[in-house]
Sequence to fold (279 residues):
Amino acid sequence: MTTPRSLGFGLGLRPIYYPDILERNPAVDWFEIISENYMVPGGRPLVILDRIRASYPIVMHGVSMSLASVDQLDFDYLTALKALATRIEPAWISDHLAWTGVDGANLHDLLPIPFTSETLRHVAERIMRVQDFLGRRILVENASTYVSVDGSEMSEHEFLTELAESADCLLLLDVNNVFVSSFNHGFDPVRYIDTLPADRVQQIHLAGHSDYVTHKVDTHDHPVCGDVWELYAHARNRFGDVSSMIERDDQFPPFEELMREVEKMRGIAASVDSEKVLA
Fold:
């Protein structure tokens, strides 16, 4: 399985911005879709997606693969996912290091796991089965967490490092999730990033979150904050030219505001790259 090339600087594709994208042909390098929003045959979303796909690379990002669940893998879901991939030919497909349900019930949340050797073997085996079925590597994203699971034997970044090697998968580094979880659990976000294997990080997410003083929640309804921009600069310095994008899922601003965030992301990357050349 080959590693896809870098796509540049992207944006999450959301229906509220369809008119802006179709009418303006914005200076975005690529778009990421929420896979489940386009897995129903027919309808306007697929028609719009086909039009946008004609002009931009697309990445598929899912929230229902439930890679860490003890339920059987849902091959009806995976078949629909594969059919969508065949239709739009995404650069890659990703989902989360989490479980989303049990006994066939989807809880519509990304739930935490114990970081143990047993869990590692279980999740790695499921990822390998998914990759075999899809015929491609997938990217696995670090989810934001709000509670710790008793019995963990390693840190999350150690678990992700071992998982990527064991399953021969790639990683989607959500910098905002690292920041949110580091605040909630009291770990060093810089060390987290420095520990991940550089050759496995294929994509970066940036987003805003809600601050409740005692804890932070990954809500995707605010602009990217200063601390997360700083962490992104560090990640860019560590991982180099990795495809990066902005997520927004609520309290949608005018499209111009999102484009300013895309340009800020592009500017930070250029500044980091220049400093590395001068050094």
Notes: The chain has nine helices and twelve strands.
